[in-house]
Specification:
This protein is mainly α and 472 residues long. Among the domains are: 151 residues, Rossmann fold (3-Layer(aba) Sandwich); 48 residues; 87 residues, Arc Repressor Mutant, subunit A. The chain contains 21 helices and eleven strands. The strands form five sheets. A three-stranded antiparallel β-sheet has the order 3-4-7. Strands 1-2 form a two-stranded parallel sheet. A hairpin with a 4-residue loop joins β5 and β6. The longest helix has 16 residues. The protein starts with a strand and ends with a helix.
């Protein structure tokens, strides 16, 4: 049985989309489940859209999510280089393109590139141009132009009246096109760089890719690729197109509707494990309706689940639920370090460690820590004027006396003394603790108040109580 080989081949044109991460995850899991190899390839031949630093960001993001590659940049492999701009220098794309021309499956194109305005006007008028006038040039005529100094591009020559089809292993059905509806796309630009169509087929062929998982938006390109595999007399990989991830408001998930980049979710305080677990289920379903999976568990079960054909909806509330679950599953020591790093050392680890148990159960993401723990992190907060009517002077005066006389500042003693004070004074427990919350934290919703006093310490607690007493 031949080795299963999958690949993830992003273009460094910006941040990694959450849908791209799902493609990488499924490709990784498919290969690992079959004891195969997962290859990373960088498709950076669209130099007009190339974003400096985006390639390195892809490496970083994949490592954060534990999707290590067996071959590719940084680790090398038998088909190096794995970055297309470096592969251009080897002449491999030129070789394949010239082969197509010599065999009549492609032709030289000398037409000048259209300006942006021309393209927009064509689209506005709904003009569909699938055939280029240069296809009628004979090879000798084209050679004359080349010898005169003109630099041509190379276009695919699409056959007439043919049915082109394949079986999609995700959708589970045969998909076909009539060749009259297939564009004679550019394969090699005049600068020697391949377009996506030529680059992806050449590299998948050279790197012996056996299974391709990619987004549904690439389906219209598939007949072009099928022709190229046929003309190269190359083994056709199994091809599967994943569902589109939909926005809850309708349509595909896109940046104009909110966060879609992996970096944005991490920066907002989502755990990599939670994000990964969430996207596992955006197109895959286990047999037992289970929801929580580690990456290792997902890989083992991947062949026992079904890749779905219905488009999933990106439910942010569900992502929040996953993240909250993972936060509560994480040991406090590890979580303390993660929160410390998330805020860039703004709060000391000692402070975070003391406060974390008071807010952990209410946290949805790391960024919530600072919001929930605000009264305990910085200077004494101002008291919300709307809360002042809830504060009773008598509560504060007696509390100050009791707390000032404590021999040790421990939770057990604070609990006992304040409980005794409430009983002796005949106060309602809820009213008393509301006075205490507002006086100490400046608002009505706070972390557990007695535990908060321990964190603040005796001196700071008494300072806040006395300040509140003066305020009312």
């Amino acid at each position: 049985m031949k080795e299963i080989r999958t690949r993830f081949a992003p273009s460094p044109t910006g941040f990694l989309h959450i849908g791209g991460l799902r493609t990488a995850l499924y490709s990784y899991a498919f290969a690992k489940n079959k004891k195969g190899s997962f290859i990373l390839r960088i498709e950076d031949t669209d130099r007009s859209r190339y974003v400096p630093g985006a390639t390195e960001k892809v490496y970083e993001i994949l490592k954060i999510f534990g999707l290590s590659w067996d071959e590719g940049p940084l680790v090398n492999g038998p088909f190096a280089p794995y970055v297309q701009s470096e592969r251009v220098k080897t002449g491999v794309y030129q070789k394949y393109a010239e082969k197509l021309v010599n065999e009549g499956h492609a032709y030289y194109c000398f037409c000048p590139a259209k300006a942006k305005e021309e393209i927009e006007e064509t689209h506005r008028r709904k003009i569909v141009e699938l055939r280029d006038p240069c296809r009628n040039l004979s090879l000798s005529q084209a050679r004359e132009k080349i010898n005169s100094g003109q630099k041509p591009a190379i276009r695919l020559r699409v056959p007439e009246n043919e049915t082109i089809s394949y079986r999609d292993f995700v959708v589970g059905k045969e998909i076909s096109w009539n060749s009259k509806d297939i564009d004679e796309v550019m394969l090699l630009k005049s600068d020697g760089f391949p377009t996506y169509h030529l680059g992806v087929v050449v590299d998948d062929t050279e790197m012996k890719i056996t299974h391709i998982l990619r987004g549904h938006d690439w389906l219209p390109s598939t007949p072009v690729h099928l022709l190229l595999y046929k003309y190269f007399e190359a083994a056709l990989p199994e091809i599967g197109h994943l569902t589109d991830i939909l926005d809850p408001q309708g349509g595909k998930l896109s940046k104009r509707k909110g966060s879609v980049a992996c970096e944005e979710f991490l920066a907002d305080g989502y755990l990599p494990e939670a994000i990964l677990n969430f996207i596992m289920l955006l197109g895959w379903a286990p047999k037992d309706n289970r929801e929580l999976f580690t990456l290792e568990e997902f890989v083992k079960l991947f062949d026992k689940g079904d890749l779905q054909t219905a488009n999933p909806i990106f439910n942010r509330e569900k992502l929040d639920w996953f993240n909250g679950m993972y936060i509560r599953k994480t040991e406090d020591a590890k979580l303390t370090t993660q929160i410390f790093q998330f805020f860039g050392g703004k709060h000391t680890q000692d402070r975070i460690e003391k406060i974390l148990p008071l807010v952990k159960d209410r946290m949805v993401k790391f960024s919530d820590f600072e919001i929930l723990a605000a009264p305990l992190l910085g200077a004494c907060p101002a008291i919300d004027k709307n809360c002042l009517p809830s504060v009773k002077k008598e509560h504060l005066e007696k509390t100050i006396l009791v707390l000032d006389n404590l021999s040790s500042w421990e939770l057990t003693q604070i609990n006992e003394k304040l409980a005794a004070l409430i009983k002796e004074s005949g106060w309602k427990t809820g009213d008393f603790y509301m006075s205490l919350r507002v006086a100490v934290c400046g608002c009505k919703v706070t972390p557990p108040i007695n535990e908060s006093l321990v964190v603040l310490g005796k001196k700071e607690t008494l300072f806040r109580l006395n300040r509140a007493l003066k305020t009312i």
